[in-house]
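Human: I would love a firmer grasp of how sequence relates to backbone shape in proteins. Take your time, and here it is.
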Amino acid sequence: MNADETGWRVDGQNHWLWVFTNKDAALYQIDKSRGSKVVDNILGKEYHGVLISDFYSAYNKLQALACKRCLGHLLAEIKKVQEKNKLAPESIDGMFCQELKTVLKQTIDVWNEYHKGTKVFEDLVKEKERAIARIVELLSLPIKHKDTQRVRKRIIKFNQELFTFLDNPHASPTNNRAKAAIETICHYEKDNFRQPFRFGGFKPGSDDEYYSDRHLEWYRTIKYFTGFISKAFNFIYGIAKDKVAMN
């Protein structure tokens, strides 16, 4: 199960649009709260499945079979730290960030290869062991910058929720499914009702996250056919309107 939330306006008031989705369906809920009570109301206090989300605290209290934090968000955060602070690649902090990105991206690559049939489950097990060993080494580096220290604290705090997808290959390494579901409904609202919205920094196709293209293919397909149907409807409606006017 993938979950996410974004800002939403209802009669000029700030609300939150939540989505809980898997490969078969998506549940949307608009709520005044962005707190953990929404997660509890939807999934219950105990969820017998794998929840994939970003690092937002509302998901922290859920008792799930397993939790998976989005590596795309973590990679985006590391990149922002590098760019904001102009970390030199040869510096300790710069090396920490670059090596960490390399480790995370390689775990995603191995997971993708598994789903292509070029890797087996044993390869996932070995990759998790390799990734953990390398990250432990990186965490021991004497980094000094407050932003890289924040990244280190996040990794330590969520260390059991980063590589769940290597234990359970049905889980995704990113939260792209929920992000795409949010974007789909937001685009629909914008195009049809001029609903103001924001994505919280999500940029499909950009370098901000390490995307697997197939995770967003279904979104692009929905967007294409929604636009096509809308144009067809407007065309037919225009013809009907002209005929009425002629009569």
Remarks:
- The chain has two domains: 1-70+174-247, 71-160.
- The longest helix spans residues 214-246.
- The chain has a mean pLDDT of 84.
